[in-house]
Specification:
Elements (H helix, E strand, L loop, with lengths): L2 H13 L2 H4 L5 E11 L2 E8 L6 E5 L4 E7 L1 E3 L12 E10 L2 E8 L3 E12 L2 E10 L2 H10 L1 H4 L20 E6 L16 H19 L3 E4 L9 H10 L4 E8 L10 E6 L6 H10 L2 H4 L13 H26 L5 E9 L11 E8 L3 H7 L2 H24 L7
The chain binds zinc ion.
The site of zinc ion has 6 residues, from loops.
Length: 401
């Protein structure tokens, strides 16, 4: 599909407020289940009413995506067992009022049928049958269905107040993950997406209360936001600082804890940094969004100049941050590192990614979920931000030698 056709399609979709037409009544999904075996695997989703699913596939890794407009998944964790041709699946919000199920297939599959059966009054079952296929057949079908992939609307762009005389610095706070991308998991089922949203909201409020900044969050609720969109939000707002908030997990939880501040580098500072960047960059794979290359068409040389200056500011802020939070936030033994995180790639916005601690460490998790700790840690971050901007205005645009 051409870009123009896509824009036309989005305009058309925007012109039809689907939820409003249904009187804002949302359909709820109450149960999901896998059945069958490697010759035919069935995914069933129980819904409170008939929903029109849109089913398509993505390759590398093999995934089947089921988009459900006007559907919300009921509270409580529904089981995620592996079975037959399905190694895992997850579900959640992809945009306001739009849910998505992402099914990880063990290999190339074909969607044999999608149908809805009435179970009883007020309950219908959406049935999706998968059968094995060849890679060639899978890719061919994916190509044919490609327009469906583009139906995901861009994230609603948060807006700053449009007062032209307001020249206070713009800080963009980016809570990691969201929607069906839950991020890391704590031992008690706590999800990174919620922990970091609460932290980011606290930081956002403190910055606003200070009156010194204009502040924007890349998400304010449990919605999925593509990595590229997070960068775009910062660039559209002409942000002076971008802070992405995360909380990592480790397969080996013993003894490792503490916060780390990351800046962008094409070469990771160590294996741990590389591993983490790879994991954090997988958000769009988790949510089933294909990473169309959305690089800007600005002249490379200008980007290069901006990037060099931005890198100096990013590193300076990273050091500020580590110094300011040291009394409050326990730091990893190697607290400033660099790696290739997608969200840090704006060439003209100083950007850092803060891993607050490890969801898999008991002690870290206790702090991460404590409101008192959150207040103290966010206040320490505000001091780092204050220091960064006062040094910057004192030194003009040039970083101090
Ligand atoms: Zn994360």
């Amino acid at each position: 599909m051409t870009r123009f056709a896509l824009i036309a399609l989005l305009a058309l979709l925007g012109a039809i407020p689907a939820a409003a037409q249904k009187g804002d009544r949302l359909i709820s999904a109450t149960a999901t289940q896998l059945g069958g075996d490697k010759s035919r695997t069935r995914l069933s989703i129980d819904l409170s009413d008939v929903a029109e699913p849109s089913v398509f596939t993505l390759a590398d890794p093999y995934r089947v995506i089921v988009d459900l407009p006007d559907v919300v998944f009921g509270g409580g964790a529904l089981p995620h067992q592996a079975r037959g041709l399905v190694s895992a699946y997850r579900y959640g919000l992809i945009a306001p009022g739009r849910s998505r199920v992402v099914v990880d297939a063990t290999g190339p599959v074909a969607v044999e049928q999608v149908r809805t059966v009435q179970i009883d009054k007020g309950r219908v079952r959406l049935v999706i049958d998968l059968v094995p296929a060849t890679r060639a057949a899978f890719l061919q079908k994916m190509q044919r269905d490609a327009p469906n992939v583009e139906q995901l609307p861009p994230a609603p762009t948060p807006k700053l107040s449009s007062d032209a005389s307001d020249d206070r610095p713009v800080v963009v706070v980016d809570p990691g993950h969201g929607g069906l991308d839950t991020g890391a998991m704590g031992a008690g089922g706590e999800e990174e997406k919620n922990v970091v949203l609460r932290f980011a909201t606290t930081l956002n409020n403190l910055l606003l209360e200070s009156g010194r900044y204009r502040v924007l969050m890349t998400r304010v609720d449990d919605n999925f936001v593509k990595l590229d969109d997070r960068v775009r939000i910062a660039r559209d707002a002409a942000a002076d600082l971008f802070i992405s908030i995360h909380a990592d997990s480790l397969a080996d939880p013993f003894g490792v804890r503490g916060a780390t501040v990351y800046t962008l580098s094409e070469t990771a500072s160590d294996a741990e940094a590389a591993r983490l960047a790879e994991k954090e960059n997988r958000a769009d794979v988790i949510a089933g969004v294909d990473l169309a290359s959305e690089t800007d068409d600005v002249a490379d040389i200008l980007i290069d100049l901006a990037r060099r200056e931005t890198k100096v500011f990013s590193m300076r802020f990273a050091h500020n941050l580590v110094t300011s939070v040291k009394p409050v936030i326990r730091l990893n033994k190697n607290p400033t590192r660099a790696a290739s995180f997608v969200v840090l790639k704006a060439p003209d916005v100083p950007s850092v990614l803060l891993e607050l601690g490890y969801m898999t460490s008991q002690e870290d998790l206790k702090l991460l979920t404590s409101p008192e700790w959150r207040d103290k840690a966010a206040a320490a971050m505000v001091r780092a931000i204050d220091g960064f901007f006062s040094a910057r205005s004192a030194g003009g645009m040039l970083p101090p030698g």
